[in-house]
């Protein structure tokens, strides 16, 4: 029996703790948190959405939940282990030694979502996955592993994948992706919790939070303006994920990649941060998006921030239009397996 509790997001939001047992990385008991949005007048006509956050993040984007609910989707979000609602005292925020550790909570979350909808609609619903940044790396790797099992991704009821500025490569000078990655590989094995000297920037955080220059309100202890420290073991896991992605995946479902059209890296906030990705290199996102499979649409959204759905109002409105257009395509005119790839607005 599931034990849903009221969530801090307020009316219509509930949460469920998913106990995961002992942490493989030795930081005690771990759990994930499933959040659901249940508007009083909501009617599910198109299935469910499961949203997964990125690094230094958790689910607080109620306007995203409400957008999907207004279009007939049951909305769920997952705070991964050691993130947001799931972070426990004494644990290193977001730390895992292998991104595959997330497979357990992802699989259990999808099962719970489908079970919840079956109880109300009478049949298990299709699930659309939505992910941001590091979540946009975690989910394709998981889907590729699922698709290699008997029955493939289709047997899980997963319908499609929407990636919001996915982290597909390590930004910065080329030596960081060669020599730097080799160093991280060694250090991450022998001193996994070693904090790396990545530099501190509050530019992106300041563009978002209401206490600085933004319009959004969220917990700064779960999403600090300067981000959480980057540890060697965690980055080693991420770089291993990047390498696997670059060899090519087959996620088994259509994918939409939304990104900004411009990157702007800086240590301090300026107005330019409001109209660009201040975290990732959008050229890398474009380059590696083709590694997801043969049904990927790539849409650059001019003026978007790193989290496209936290952009300024006119920009995020355009992003939602692009999202809805793509959803209409996969739900009302979904291509059959083996059909030609969808064409995006920018090549990968």
From TrEMBL:
Keywords: Hydrolase. This is Alpha/beta hydrolase. The keyword Transport does not apply. Pfam families: Hydrolase_4 (PF12146). InterPro entries: AB_hydrolase_fold (IPR029058), Hydrolase_4 (IPR022742), MAG_DAG_Lipase (IPR051044). It comes from the Bacteria. The keyword Signal does not apply. GO terms for molecular function: hydrolase activity. Residues 45-264 form the Serine aminopeptidase S33 domain.
């Amino acid at each position: 029996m599931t034990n849903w509790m009221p969530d801090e997001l307020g009316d219509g939001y509930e949460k469920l703790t998913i106990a995961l047992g002992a942490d493989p990385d030795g930081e005690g008991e771990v759990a994930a948190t499933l959040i659901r949005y249940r508007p009083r007048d909501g009617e599910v006509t198109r299935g469910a959405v499961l949203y997964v956050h990125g690094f230094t993040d958790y689910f607080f984007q109620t306007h995203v939940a409400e957008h999907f609910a207004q279009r007939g989707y049951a909305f769920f979000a997952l705070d991964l282990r050691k993130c947001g609602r799931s972070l426990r005292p004494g644990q290193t925020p977001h730390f895992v030694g292998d991104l595959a550790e997330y497979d357990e909570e992802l699989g259990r979350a999808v099962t719970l979502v489908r079970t919840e909808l079956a109880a109300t609609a009478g049949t298990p619903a299709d699930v659309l996955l939505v992910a941001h940044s590091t979540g946009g790396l975690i989910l394709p790797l998981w889907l590729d592993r699922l698709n290699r099992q008997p029955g493939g991704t289709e047997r899980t009821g997963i319908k499609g994948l929407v990636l919001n500025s996915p982290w597909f490569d390590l930004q910065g000078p080329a030596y960081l992706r060669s020599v730097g990655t080799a160093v991280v590989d060694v250090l991450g094995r022998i001193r996994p919790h070693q904090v790396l000297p990545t530099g501190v920037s509050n530019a992106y955080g300041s563009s978002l939070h209401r206490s600085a220059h933004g319009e959004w309100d969220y917990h700064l202890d779960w999403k600090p303006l300067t981000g959480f420290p980057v540890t060697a073991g965690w980055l080693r896991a991420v770089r291993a994920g990047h390498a696997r992605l670059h060899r090519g995946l087959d996620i088994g479902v259509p994918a939409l990649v939304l990104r900004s059209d411009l990157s702007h890296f800086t240590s301090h906030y300026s107005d330019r941060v409001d109209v660009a990705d201040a975290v990732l290199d959008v050229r890398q996102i474009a380059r590696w998006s083709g590694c997801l499979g043969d049904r990927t649409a790539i849409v650059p959204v001019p003026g978007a921030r790193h989290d496209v759905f936290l952009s300024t109002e006119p920009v995020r409105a355009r992003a939602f239009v692009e999202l809805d257009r793509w959803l209409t395509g996969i739900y009302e005119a979904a291509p059959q397996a083996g059909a030609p790839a969808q064409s995006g607005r920018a090549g990968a």
